[in-house]
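Database export, one record per block. Field names are fixed; values are copied verbatim from the stored entry.
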Amino acid sequence: MAAPDAAAPAGVIAATAHVHDLEPAMAATLTPIRAILAAVDAYDGERVRVGGWVRTGRVQCGGTVAFLAVNDGSCHATLQLVVDAAQVAQPPLARLAATGTSVLVSGVLRIPTKRSKERIELGVDAVLHAGLVDDAAAYPLPKSRLRLDYLRDFLHLRPRTETMAAVARMRSQLTFATHSFFQENGFLCVHTPIVTTNDCEGAGEMFQVTTLFSQAQKADKELLKLKLSEISRNNDDDDGSVGFDNDFFRRQAFLTVSGQLHAEPYACALSRVYPFGPTFRAENSHTSRHLAEFWMVEPEMAFANLQDIMNYAESYVKHLCQWLLTHCLEDMKFMVETHDKTAIKRLERVSTTPFERITYTQAIEMLVESEGNKKFQTKVEWGIDLASEHERYLTEVIFEKPVIVYNYPTGIKAFYMRLNDDQKTVAAMDVLVPKIGELIGGSQREERLDILKQRILDAGLQLESYEFYLDLRRYGTVEHSGFGLGFERMLLFATGLENIRDVIPFPRCPGKADL
């Protein structure tokens, strides 16, 4: 049986003629390690090119043979390369075997003897490239397993570690799964702006976007104070507040905390949309659950009520869990072995179990009844915003499965959520899952113009800033609903890792914006 053709990846156009002033294309000639390990028998005896980084290496037989465990990122496993000094004179085998070395090699694949633990190995007959490690003793990622908090000081190198590589592959698969779910359900992907003039949540914890200080920094150092003073003077309104006539946008602007307010206009024209992008919050929190920059999936639907989004949210979470079990099982097994023994069982249970649905009032009653057995740090009473300890107790102890809590008190939810007939609660819902607590938050949006105006004012916001939002109610208003899933929280839930800074490539948090 011939090996699968690795010369040209699917969808990649191969050049019909060589361009003489350029080197020949390289990437199309490589065979991914994932492909080799998925079809060992088919590749036995085949000549291939492989590129990757040495995880571990050893030189044996009196310094004449090197065994390199190489990984190219296509899967969790490594491929063993056997390099004979008789065939490869340079570089020296000891240098080649150093952890972190990059190699591009060619050779013939072979199934080793039964005594070997390797399913297949590559007998190298040519080292086409070797990116050597300058000082092996100084390389920050030795062979030993490293603490995740240590790796946060080496964001540029930590993707080479097993854990971070596994997280990267799972994050990529969850991204694909997200698009597949919403595309298959008739949603359009909409790119909402990162720079905004609106505070979606009304919390005021937003990063301001301004060029005023950049203008000052262009001046000489000795003129810096004078320039800052001038900017302040030119941009102060009569009431002492800062004006923005000389700023880039001629008005106050921020990094978005949510794409929702920009997604709603598209939902109210295209019926079903979903933004998927970065959001920002200037919350001075140092907990393991907070980031200043994080990604959100925020579907919005016209002609949809609270029950509709509860149904879609449950289906979406189940889809993500099943997708990981199908497409990332090797990485999930690694997580079970190294970080959380219950990770796979948790995904299996969530993907197959109907979610419980209870009102906020019912949740409070259950928590109050449980106080004889469980002491909560935050007192349980009607009107509180459920803390993580309450959410996890509901999902992990009372129901032992995901729970959707709905109809929350008006005072703890955002202005855009639809006011219920009791005037005390809004048509909001949260999806709570074991280990994490809140994974999804959503609501039916307030479609009644007069009520929405009053809710904006009650939140201490200016009506002028939300005229576009009010126009959606003036011109063809419609019942519509949406929710948001915190992408990093989903990764925490799936992997079993404890700190959210370990499931995003380059975490941003108070005092940290490295690289």
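Remark 1: The chain has a mean pLDDT of 91.
Remark 2: The longest strand covers residues 47-60.
End of record.
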